[in-house]
Amino acid sequence: MFDTHAQQTHFLSEITAEIAKHPPAEPAVFSADELAALPDPIENFLHQARWAEKAKPFNARIHWDDVAFKRSPEAQWMKLECHQFNSVPAPARFAYMRAKLLGVVPFEGLDETHDGHGSMHLALASFAMGDQRGPEMDVSSLVTFLAEALLVPSVAVQPYLAWEPIDARSAGATLTFGETSVRGVFHFDDRGLCSRFVTDDRFLSEGKGHYARHRWTAECSQYIEMGGVLVPSHMRAVWHLPDGELEYFHGNIVDIEYDLSEFGAL
User: Which of 38, 204, 213, 233 could bond to 42 as cystine, CB 3.0-4.6 Å?
Assistant: First the structure.
């Protein structure tokens, strides 16, 4: 582990500000009317994952382990330390990553969406490597928040989310916030647990400010009990490119803390 750098400080200050704007509210369980208004696969998921009788979470700190990332099929996997916070009332997601390249050079990344805008900040040895922002990042960051909606499932009943019934094992969702709207489809296994999220609303950076839209899938598996609910302990992300699939991220969720009044130290 290396010394604190600017991205970590920014990450913690942004979360502190987000919690101050939207502190945890009085706990309330999902109402019968809220559940009945959802497509059958979503309502069934909330029951199967044991959320239907639980208080709706207001925010969440997601603890990751064994996280790895690569930029291309030919690249080597890079091991990352990852910390994440999601907030429900106004879609917000902050993911901070750090590593030591070649075991020596400190690397930091901060992927965030809040106030209707997304960005990615990268730094190597305290020098900025990139600061990606703009409409493509707004869309990509917001759809990543949508992909994780069922990790913090009170997102499912927020006014910014509209559901579209498809069939017994899938449901579409459109999230609209500010001037940005994104859509994806949630798929469920034979137990009624979410197995993957698929969207065409995500952009892959090609460098020098150029982006290309490609299909993107987030897969979740290996559900285990955490705090009385079932949570996928393994996640992977895949780009569907013209030359084939690129799995570029995988990691294990080892714990989720809900309804934080402060984030605490890393």
Answer: 38
